[in-house]
Amino acid sequence: MTDPGLPGRLRAAVGEAGLVTDPARMGGYLSDWRNAYSGTAAAVVRPVSTDEVAAIVRACRKEGVAVVPQGGNTGLCGGAVPDTSGRQVVLSLDRMRRLRAVDPVNQTITVEAGVVLQAVQEAAAAEGCLFPLSLGSEGSCTIGGNLSTNAGGTGVLRYGTMRDLTLGLEVVLPDGRIWNGLRGLRKDNTGYDLKHLFIGAEGTLGLVTAAVLKLFPAVRSRATAWVAVGSAQAAVDLFGIVRALCGDRLTAFEIMSRQSVDFVLRHGTGARDLFGSVHFWYVLVELSDTLPDARLDGLLEAALAEAFDRDVAGDAVVASGSAQVAALWALREGISEAQNFEGPSLKHDVTVPISSIPAFVERTDKALRAALPGIRIVTYGHIGDGNLHYNLSKPVDSDDDTFRNLAEELARMVYDATSSFGGSISAEHGLGQSKRDVIADYKDGLELELMRSLKHLLDPRGLMNPGKVLPAW
To answer: Fewer CB within a 10 Å sphere, N or C end of the chain?
Structure first.
């Protein structure tokens, strides 16, 4: 750190308890959970209030020091990791964990950015309500991080992304001013809806410190099924059948390739194959309702019967209790962790129109297998909103470094195919630093120009999470 005045100003802002400069204590803040991205920092600051965040931002701005916001640090694209210069300050929101207000009548909850997602779910449940965002990392990811990447998860089909679940924000701007937009209104037609500038911006336009989130009536009945299908097209056909019959009771519709399930069966504790024969694809379907006895099992069984009549489904089991429901979800949610046991994992989070999923999978699988024989393609995701986690593992017994060296080439193949189907190279993980440079090849030039203009307007000195989202400018 070149300016000796900055440590003093940071200490004045957060106190000794909120300032970390010891390299050993900073370690956990300087790399992501997969150790895929790492950096160094001048300091880590851990404020407990919005005023402290504003003071930190003003101090760093005065010294020309960049600020890297960080929540639960569970991202997959390096968006919350500092660079290697050693001059950036990591601003962790992990001490800002207050539940400021719950309004069951207005169906809103106001929370600070460092609150863990699971804590929001539990606070909503205590009031007889539901906060529907659900992710595999919900026990450690934070609301600030969810907002910064516009997180989606398994409930998007019915409830939408964080953009849809957010009514108001509190944001510290790059100059240290605080915008208080914490309004719990469904209707507010008084000009530009500024909150949408900051949702999905990954901290590059300002620091979200609190949010007003939507709540929903609690779910009182569910029906969950594990269905085997012969192809991605059959999965899409099954989605159409269930959606037509069950309407908005359809909460989740998850697809998994056999390779994905094989990894979980191999490495997941207590995981077991539910069918006597191997199938190419599997689908997890869940219905939910606010009625305590909505007879959803019968509705789901009727949809599956139609699927069997039309030769869309090959086998199916409807969960008979909460333990079996948990076991089915464990098969789905255990994929990412299980894949890590198989060596380097090249992760791609893409979205294409639902109708294009079968053709996308067929074309991209074929191209990748031609480029690298033996490659293991781990495809799974939220087929109900077109989002596929299209991940790659190395061929069996091949070299880790050789596979890593092919990462850019293989990613380009996935992204080119995604683009050819009118899709997006980031569905819910954000761009971070991993996709920062390639986005220019897949996003309209005018869109990038407008994004840069917004960045320049709000953060002309480029001190808010630099090196993320936008290509060099």
So the answer is: C
